[in-house]
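Suppose you are handed only these lines of text.
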Amino acid sequence: MDKTVLITGATSGIGKATAELFAEKGFRLILCGRRRERLENLKKELSHKTKVHILSFDVRDRKAVFDAIGSLPEDFAKIDILINNAGNAHGLDTIDQGSIDDWDAMLDINVKGLLYVSKAVIPQMVERKSGHIINIGSIAGKEVYPKGNVYCASKYAVDALNQSMRIDLNPHGIRVGAVNPGAAETEFSNVRFKGDDERADNVYKGFDPLTPMDIAETILFVVTRPAHVNIWDLVVTPTAQASATVWNKK
Ligand code: NDP
Ligand code: 8X3
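From them, the structure of the protein bound to NDP can be written out as follows.
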């Protein structure tokens, strides 16, 4: 596959599974995240399947984003597919109890970070009049649930930006679409509950959650449609999840 894919949040969960699956298919990979050691290990693991370049930066740091993407070597400089995946929830509290630091983290990473990376990549797509952007939203960007407040707001923003990008980039022939997962077992809940692994594990009890690979396969399907086909928006949940709050648990 003669295409270069930049994946944010490739050190864990959905981003890592996407890197693994896309390596199998021979896409050139630019893998991003803050945890450099994980990126280096992933590069070692995947380099026998495809070309891999790693970029370690915090999506909240505007300069670091532009410096990292501006530093790409020639082989990787032309980005065909951008997967805006980096993101997390921080805390699960009612709006009156929520921590302002958690709110800042979610808005800075999930919304502003996604914007910075997009701004660093989109101009070259516009110039070439081709490209494909996948935004990882959430069921939380389709429905608000109790205590979801700012995380939901951040994912509603991703939904709005996904729609806006599709419209604004339409004249340039750039495809834009979102994949919105329901509950997927990743490090998501460990981050949300700040390392309380027991509480995190409980989130996935009593039903079969999505695996990160379920979402990676969905992303692969979206980006491998013929050039005239653009998938706007997919919501993918475990079968046991009928909405953000309706569950068929054992
Ligand atoms: P993980 O916690 O497993 O992965 C999150 C990834 O985001 C990590 O690779 C992490 O890398 C990266 N990341 C987080 N903060 C930053 C930052 N400041 N700068 C750069 N990278 C960052 O969670 P998931 O795989 O589940 O999450 C991926 C996406 O899927 C997120 O956008 C999430 O909101 C969304 N999602 C997840 C669902 C779920 O149930 N798991 C459901 C719906 C949506 P590092 O820490 O190395 O920087
Ligand atoms: C992650 C899924 O339901 O915890 O976006 O918001 S949920």
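What can we learn from it? Residues 138-140, 148, 183, 244 surround 2-hydroxyethylsulfonic acid (ligand 2) (CB under 6 Å). The beta strands are 4-7, 28-33, 52-56, 81-84, 132-136, 175-181, 233-236.
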